[in-house]
Design goal:
222 residues, four-stranded mixed sheet, four-stranded antiparallel sheet, 8 helices
């Protein structure tokens, strides 16, 4: 069976066909500047087992390695930032599990190359937790997760030093506000929205905010 297809039945039931590496790289080269930004956010709404976001992660980690290989602490911190900037949704649970494991494997392998040793468990636990929150099983068309609840993504922002701020947003509201510029006419119920410099647009208020934590302790609050 071709690497682009797991089974004919899955193609019939879900239209599942994976993009081959050559096409993935050609498309990502069109936004090469963004794939080279460690904190630039990427969302793949039908991520499958991660062909696109795996390559995005490799490119980001390559930049982290060049810039921070001389300091294990700095390397791990910015590797966390790279992972935390990548999001994916897929309708099939096995794809989601495979994607998370694939991305974690990339992080482990790249960290081992740079650090000349296996990364410590705190680092792995933090990366695993972020992947659990950022790679979700759901339907990006209905914007509902596998349990029928609205898809909610966590935003991870390094505030100062090793401190990270987590804020949760509804995917539906993020997409509704994308591209809306500061000063544009806003809807009746959008008075709580705020301007985001990174996207030069308006984003909704978070549905939940968490206290600051060290990046390696993000899993403490569930």
């Amino acid at each position: 069976m071709s690497e682009q297809v797991k089974s004919r039945q899955r193609v019939q039931d879900h239209g599942e066909v994976f993009t081959n590496p050559r096409e993935v790289n050609a498309m990502l080269d069109m936004v090469k500047q963004e794939t080279g930004r460690i904190d630039s956010r990427f969302l793949e709404p039908a991520c499958g087992n991660g062909n696109f976001i795996a390559e995005v992660l490799r490119r980001k980690l390559a930049v982290v390695a060049v810039r921070y290989r001389k300091s294990a602490g700095e390397y791990c911190r910015y590797a966390f930032v790279a992972v935390a900037s990548i999001y994916g949704v897929d309708i099939l649970a096995d794809n989601v599990a495979e994607c998370r494991e694939r991305l974690l494997g990339i992080v482990k392998d790249e960290a081992h190359k740079v650090l000349k040793a296996a990364p410590d468990q705190q680092f792995i636990d933090a990366i695993s937790y972020v992947l659990k929150k950022n790679i979700l099983c759901g339907d990006a068309l209905t914007m509902k997760d596998a349990a029928g609840e609205p898809i909610t993504f966590a935003e991870w922002s390094v505030v100062t030093g090793d401190k990270v701020k987590r804020r949760d947003y509804l995917l539906s509201e993020l997409l509704e506000g994308s591209g809306t510029k500061r000063g544009d006419q806003m809807g009746l119920f959008q008075s709580g929205w705020e301007y985001d410099e990174e996207i030069d647009g308006l984003i909704p208020s978070a549905v939940r905010e968490y206290p600051l934590d060290n990046w390696w302790e993000v899993s403490r609050r569930g």
